[in-house]
Batch of 2 targets.
Target 1
Amino acid sequence: MSERELGRKLDRCLADGVIKLGTGLGLGIVFSVLFFKRHTWPISLGSGAGLGMAYSNCQNDLRSHYLLHRNQKVER
Amino acid sequence: MLRLLLRGAAGSARKNGGRGPVAHLQPLRQYSSSQSSGAAKVVAASLLTVGGGIGGTVLYAQWDHKFRATVEKNVPYSDSVFGLILGPAPQNAGPPVRTQLESTQPQSMLEKRAKTSKVQSEKKVKGTTETEAIEPTPTVSVPAASMEEASVEATQIISASGDVPSVPAPCDTEPTVVTGNTHEHCDECHPAGPEAVLHGADSPTEQLVERPAEEVSARLAQQDQDEQNVLAAVSSSLEESLACSARAALQAIGAQEAALQAINQHTQKLKEAMEAESPPEEKSVQWKDLEAALMDRTSAVTDATAALQKANEALDSLRTTIRNSKDLKVAAARPLVLAAEENLHKMAVDLDRVVAQVQSAEAESKIVSQYSDLVQEAKLQFQKEVSSLTPEIQANWKGLTGKLSSDDLNALIAHAHRRIDQLNRELAEQRVREQIHIDAALQQQKLEDQRVLENAVSSSLQHVKEEARLEQERKMNELREVMEAEMRTQLRRQAAAHTDHVRDVLKVQEQELRAEAEQVLSSKLLDQETRHRQLTQEQLDNFTLDMNAAYARLKGVEEAIDSHLVAEDEARRAHQLWLSVEALNHTLKTAGAEEPSVPLDSAAQIVRDSCREDDFASALAEALPAESLSRGVYGEASLRARFNSLRSLVRRVALIDESHNSLYQYFLSYLQAALLFEDQQVAPPTQLSSEDLDPFKLLSYASYCLEHGELELAAKLVNQLKGEARRVVEDWLTEARLTLETRQVVSLLSAYANAVGLGTTQAP
């Protein structure tokens, strides 16, 4: 159903966001702990990067319908 | 924060193209926070300026209406302001109303004049017929009937062309009766000739009407008849009286001649008796004869006088008859009258002659009788003397010579001698007085002769006069006849000319009439022919039509029968179709709340089977979408429910389309959906304007439609969604379309089946 698609996308977005945020956070923490002497900036960097990537992914996912790929036909 | 929000709203308002002409919503009023008096001054100044401007505008508008109209047009609500202050705009009557001039023309005098002139001309026309009739009266003294006109024309023609100048006949001439003029004037002609002329000239006031020819001819005939009658009567009377008088005259003449004869005879006898010396026997015989002759004479004379009287009477009657017939003035009797007069004259002359003869004879006989009387007297005297002398001697003394004595003889001789002496003396005396006697006798005779001469002269003069008069009459008659003949010739010429003219005219008329009649005949014939042809054609057409009609009816009957069969067949098939379509319809209803209906394939198959011959139905059956066949269709209720759940989603993505699809936009869209409130259901307008294409409005319209069962309209409205909203409702739209399609096909089929069923069922 076309109406469920958005929900699905949003679900994906959220999941993706969570994952990326978590991963970013984790990596940040790891890097902060390991390499950056427990500064907070790698954590915020990591989480921010994670969030940003999730945002971007979500946006792309949501936009994907409107963007025609070169070798992809969008079925309306 | 507020500013940010406002800016964003303004930006979104700009970007949202569906908003339409954006009215400058919240005018950004810049509050001036300064409370200084400078500002108050500025405010006051500005207020004053504005007030002055408005007052000036109003005043000028009061003065100049065009300006007012311009201001009212350009500045909204100024007309109410002006109305409050100045009162309503004056009704500037544009072009002045043209009063309609009544173009009543005066009673055209021309018309009146035309009318009067027409009346006059009519009168004139009437009058001309009279005047026409009257005009020739001066020229022709007889008042004119149309015949007269023609005759006048003819006379004119004759006078123009002929060599003999036509003399208009005076009415005096009797021939007017013969030539058949108007009867009335004919009657008037009779008493006095010239009177009629005057009368004719004075008759313009009379209305002369031409009598019809038959009447005229009848009158003429009557006149002729009368003339004939009169003539006959006159002639008969004349003849009678002539005959009578002739007879009487002849008788008288005969009697007179007889009397003459008798007188002559008597005279002769007397003379003989007187002079002849004969023996006494013969003497007595002679005297007897004489007496007989005398008696004869007297009788003859009386007869003669009687006859003469009769003859005179007859002549008188003849004369009166002649006068009467003359008084009648009948022309044809004239010669008769003349002849009668001549006869009368002759008879009178004869009578007079004979009477004269008789009178002369009588005179002679008188002389002789006187002589005889004298002799007789002498004889008697002698006898007396002798007898006185010799008384015994008888009268017849000559025979008595022997008986007488000598004395007697001597006495006798002495007496004789004495007598002789006496006689000689008388003779001598007589001789002496002879001349005187002769003169006296001559005188007497002269007188007598004169008298006789006078008588004769007078009678002959009378006769001559009579003859002259008769001659004159005869000449006049001749002349009259000649004139009449001439008149007749002229009239004949006139008549001939008239007849020629009439003949020509008649010929021309005849030709014209013939041509006309022929034309009429030919046209009538043509009409008849065309009508006949038309009729026959009509009959043929009717017959053909009837035949065609009958044939058509026959055909129709046959077709009806065939069609009945066919119809029954079709009815059966239609019934089957209907049943199958009903089954199909029923399968549609099996759609549940969430599930689609059962696949329509089987029912569609049945339908297809039942409408194998019907192209329309089979086409429709083919037109069922494949999805519905394989999967079934959703019901309206499920669609409705789905829509309701869709609605919120659509609201949330209302701002998203190709250009606005970032996550931020999504956030904004979500925000809008949260903050914007619209009616749950709004009745859609009949025409969608660009304002109505707002997704929220569309959703309310669609919701309304769905609630009211109009799936089609809802689908149409939903179809108007654009962008992401459209993508979201795509599936729903497809489903709705499918359902609609299927339902349409099925309804068509059922309608068709119903129609076919209705069409094929026969009404009782």
Target 2
Amino acid sequence: MLGVGDFYYELGVQIIEVCLALKHRNGGLITLEELHQQVLKGRGKFAQDVSQDDLIRAIKKLKALGTGFGIIPVGGTYLIQSVPAELNMDHTVVLQLAEKNGYVTVSEIKTSLKWETERARQVLEHLLKEGLAWLDLQAPGEAHYWLPALFTDLYSQEITAEEAREALP
Amino acid sequence: MAMSFEWPWQYRFPPFFTRLQPNVDTRQKQLAAWCSLVLSFCRLHKQSSMTVMEAQESPLFNNVKLQRKLPVESIQIVLEELRKKGNLEWLDKSKSSFLIMWRRPEEWGKLIYQWVSRSGQNNSVFTLYELTNGEDTEDEEFHGLDEATLLRALQVLQQEHKAEIITVSDGRGVKFF
């Protein structure tokens, strides 16, 4: 049960604000690390400390409300999904593969997951369609599909004033 | 006026340099980010005009470290978008060189006219040089503005009957109303 004044309720609101502000960058997918960093920044130095576990607990509560939040385990951490993009098991497993380099290719998927080309292509098309991935046609060899959510250069970048406005009701 | 310039995160993101993204929403974000980057880059480097060939090889569109460069067809689309927004003007019919204005002429016109009014200099005459290089305007944003952009700003004011571009002894000047 969520109650007003509840620690996790307030944390949930903060989480939603960060996700809204960054949605246009990452399509609604964010690593737990980045979310943690941004939430801590927003809390200021006198606020109660917040751990990644706290974030997970708050997000589970948000999930229970049917808000479209999702938690996807990848390479030892989690990707937090904040928009109700249709992500099935195939998409999730490709996300996990992408976590290593921040991008993924058809060949990589075929080699690691032993899938047919068509199945790999469909997943990548879907990620593009959902705005979670961008296409890179100048990579050596074949097209690379990059996920802004996994692009570590993006971490700890300040939320701009414009992005913050997105988070206001 | 010091201005800090940092390459936006997109500049280090390889797909940013691929021709415009297939996803419509993503493409819009990509195009908007490019337009914004072109304007800040030109503002920083005080570059008011460029040729398309220069642009292709400039660090703006060619990120050597990343080994990515925006293809010329996409550069054309970005430039066209800037033209539509009023920040760019083609200098020749074959669209090989362009004037780039990080502030639109209307915006510059407004700033200049505000200064004129504030300093009580309506009905005064200035040479173009005085406006952009005179001591009096040292603290103004339009100080150091290139002549081509200045003229366009004054033309806007002229249309609004706030100024008149005139000929003075060795060039052009403007009278404000």
